[in-house]
User: Fold this.
Amino acid sequence: MTNHDIRTKIIEAAHADVPDLRAAIKSSSRFQVNVRPTFWTQLRLRPLQFASLLLVFGVALSLWLTSPAPILSEVYATIYLDINPSFEIDIDARYDIIEVRPMNPDALSVMRDLATLTGQPFDDALDRLVEQAVALEYLTAERPVMMMDVSTRDIESREHLLTRVTEKVPELREKHLPNIDIVEGDAREQTSEETDTAIHHDMSVMRLRMIREIMRLDEGQQFEALARLDAGELSRLLEVLRKRTDEHDSINPGERPSDDDPTGIRPPQEGSQEKEDDAPTTDSGMGS
Amino acid sequence: MKGMNHQKLNHHVEQLKQGDLSVFDAVYDMTRVGVYYTILTIVKDIGLTEDLMQETYLKMLDSLPRYRKRHQFQAWLNTIAKNLAINTYNKRKREQPVDQDADPSVFGVTHDQQEKAYALQELLAVLNEEEKIVVIRFVVLEEKHKDIAKHLGKPVGTVTWMYQNALKKMRRKAGEEDDES
Assistant:
């Protein structure tokens, strides 16, 4: 007898010994195939794989929730920028852009040719806005000044942001326009009347307030004429008028506007047009 | 032939997976030997093996929607049988104190099965218990010497030698029987 014969005998014997349990199996109430696809078969994920995914998700979620970093997409500050095109820019705590809102038709034309600025660092976005404003000749060697303000929850953050922008001016000069500058405006706590008027005149509230302040200090000034000046010219004019008013008040303290006058507007002064002509040309911007 | 059987089995399994229970008999016939001896070599109790064999097939039907074709069906089914057998073996070991005098043979027989004559038991009667396991695993379950060695905790060379020695013993016995007849 060969090994092959023995193996054949073993296999035959093994088959002969295995009992026929089909009847017993078929009589069981569990004798059925669940053909309905289960959640796991449809998902093609084993419970262990699913549990792993769930664990990773849970860890990520808990890290995110316990992270000391502020929640992104929450507006940390709003930056008001007036290049004549006027923008409101919401940024998050990392100074990344959440939204840029064009506030007049000129701003729309600047943004039209720009890819989205959302998610970009504010420094980069400012760089691109200035580049586009120069390309479209809103910022020129003759009109090189922008106006800006920052609205934040606290004064400290506002100062920090203003300083940060100021520090960027040399870089903007080098890259885009040698005499570019930024002056500080006032855009905080805007009233609906101010917003409506600013929109009506296609200008920012900062510019409107500056013009109104100039007209308050010098009633001879005309709104339309002032509206044509750029931010730098308005800023210098306002500075001169404030200086003159202070000097006048210190010499003639009795000539202060009456407390009964709710407008606080001083009576018309002679030669107000001359004063405008006398406006100094010195650079009084934030960046100098 | 083996390849054809394999194809046929896969075809039946796909039908079974669709809920066609008429092919169960064919699937059972083609897989029962592997299932039976997988369990028997672990629990070493014929009565218990039969119970676990039924449970294996019922569990297979229950788990069939999760079966993927890339696995060999027989190997997948044997794994179900093996896990059931190991679980039962361990459970029994915990529940019953180990009886040193108990028969540790592969063909330990219980209750009503004692009356039945087992062909393989008679054929392997000349072998010791380890040799029986080596022969059953190698010839019936078609396992490799390497895997059997791993299971028994012995070197592959020892397992190969045990298998050759077992065949020699069986040949000798067959020769004696031929002489007698």
User: Anything to note?
Assistant: Residues 256-288 of chain A have pLDDT under 50 and may be disordered. Chain A has twelve helices and five strands. The longest strand of chain A covers residues 145-152.
